[in-house]
Amino acid sequence: MIARLPVFFLCLLLLIPAYASAANYVQAAGSTLEFTGKYQGDAFKGRFPGFKTQLSFNPAELSKARLDVVIPLASATTRNPDYDEAMLGADFFNSAKFPNARYTATSFKALGAGRYSAAGFLELRGVKKPVKLLFTWQPGKSPVLTGTATVKRLDFNIGMGDWADTAMIADDVVISTRVVLNPR
């Protein structure tokens, strides 16, 4: 029995790195990706119901964390037919020419108390710019990532021509997400 103890401890030591490595997740039902902006001083809200998220994340090993979000732009809706028609058109998302936006992050930082930041890039309308996502992580059987980011729409050529006037449509757009995740 005593001779088996070193073998048992060796097996435990071999399992520790596997346990500490990043877990892989895919988006589950109940996830949301929303945006909020201002038009003529009034707030408007929209959402991207068709987005898909993949995440590799372990708070103990942030150097291995990865986030990939694909956002089909034609799925965007404000639930206002006039806004939606303009938003999908050539002056805004131009979803016929640029069907998807994509956010990828490979640099993560712990901020304390279950809060994190992800430094990544948003590619939208053929423009790729850095965007920081601030989020909380709720671990569990189906973990939840809840986060926000602020994007300058004009950096991505969103709202061309007369719509580029920030007195009419504010430049800052707040992106909010709540992603329920399942292990992959």
Structural topology:
Layout: H1 4-20, E1 23-27, E2 32-39, E3 42-47, E4 52-57, E5 66-72, H2 81-88, E6 100-112, E7 115-124, E8 127-138, E9 144-152, E10 172-183
How would you characterize the overall build of this protein?
By secondary structure, the chain is mainly β. The protein has a single domain, classed as Lipocalin, CATH 2.40.128. It is 14% helix and 48% strand. The protein contains 2 helices and 10 strands, in the order H-E-E-E-E-E-H-E-E-E-E-E. Strands 1-4-5-6-7-8-9-10 form an 8-stranded antiparallel beta barrel. The protein is elongated, with a radius of gyration of 20 Å.
Considering the chains and any ligands shown, give keywords for the structure:
mainly beta; Lipocalin; 2 helices; 184 residues; 10 strands
